[in-house]
Write a structure and sequence with these properties.
Helix content: 25-40%
Low-confidence stretches: none
Strand order of the largest sheet: 6-7-8-9-12-13
Largest sheet: 6 strands, mixed
Oligomer: single chain
Strand content: 25-35%
Mean pLDDT: 97
Order of helices and strands: EEEHEHHEHHEEEEEEHEEH
CATH architecture: 4-Layer Sandwich
């Protein structure tokens, strides 16, 4: 497969940062660099990837806490999430203090919206807005390879938390049912935490959406 993926668990939350690249050109991007920037940089060097972009699914510290220092180190732009998560990125340093982690506030170079497209080494990902865990949560879908990065929307046998003051369970379930479950059974995805899964497996066994 021309699209290559390396998952790099970062932070005490073991968030699945993803390094994604084209096998031929070695051009790629980092999704959700939540922290442990040195570990991410080491993975980039080991894979021999030239990172062109950083993309964010949402504004929580375990997904975006390392975005600013990594962007500065690599000389690349930060794109995403949706502008609805600006309040979370503006408070990244405060989130860090809450959890005993060091983090810098994050100002993306561009926001993303439903219907936008991003490119990783020539591979096009569709951008879908899937709110509920956070208001501006996005997922990235590559239909050509039946692969996506879903952040904290859908997990193996679970879904993202909505017990925040800005959480919305109905919105999250609605986004999963209308935007993710119509994808093919063999559509594989990286979750924000834990093991990977497929849409078919979740359709059959996930107790939150059966």
């Amino acid at each position: 497969m021309a699209l290559q993926i390396a998952v790099i668990p970062v932070t005490p939350f073991q968030q699945n940062c993803a390094l994604v690249w084209d096998a031929a050109s070695k051009q790629g991007a980092v999704f959700d660099p939540g922290g442990d920037v040195a570990r991410i940089e080491a993975a980039i060097v080991q894979a021999g990837v030239v990172v062109r972009d950083i993309f964010l699914t949402h504004g929580h510290i375990d997904h975006a806490g390392g975005a600013t220092p990594l962007a500065q180190a690599l000389g690349v732009k930060i794109t995403g999430p949706g502008a609805e998560d600006k309040f979370l990125l503006d408070g990244m340093a405060a989130q860090g203090r809450q959890f005993g982690l060091h983090a810098q506030n994050c100002t993306p170079d561009a926001w993303l919206n439903e219907g936008d497209e991003i490119s990783v080494g020539g591979h096009v990902f569709e951008v879908l807005h899937c709110p509920g865990h956070t208001p501006g949560h996005l997922v990235f879908i590559n239909r050509a390879t039946n692969f996506g990065i879903l952040g904290d929307v859908l997990f193996r046998n679970s879904i993202g938390r909505t017990d925040f003051e800005y959480g919305d369970t109905d919105a999250l379930i609605g986004a999963i049912r209308t935007k993710l479950l119509p994808l093919p059974d063999d559509f594989a995805f990286i979750c924000g935490h834990g093991e990977t899964s497929t849409i078919g497996a979740e359709r059959r066994s996930n107790p939150f959406i059966r």
